[in-house]
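Propose amino acids for all 53 sites.
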């Protein structure tokens, strides 16, 4: 459910909130690959390419 929220935030172009929400997921499970991918996408869309990688 939390990953869906991150996807929706990205779809709504609310990238800062998507980064914050993915951070909560990653605090609970730092190896969650989908959360890492979504967080990278949000950083990419914010044009913060260095952090996105």
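Proposal:
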């Amino acid at each position: 459910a939390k990953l869906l929220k991150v996807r929706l935030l990205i779809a709504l172009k609310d990238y800062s909130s998507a980064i914050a929400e993915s951070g909560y997921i990653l605090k609970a499970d730092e190896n969650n690959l989908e959360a890492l991918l979504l967080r990278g996408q949000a950083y990419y869309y914010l044009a913060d390419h260095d952090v996105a990688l």
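The chain has one domain: 2-52. The chain has a mean pLDDT of 92.
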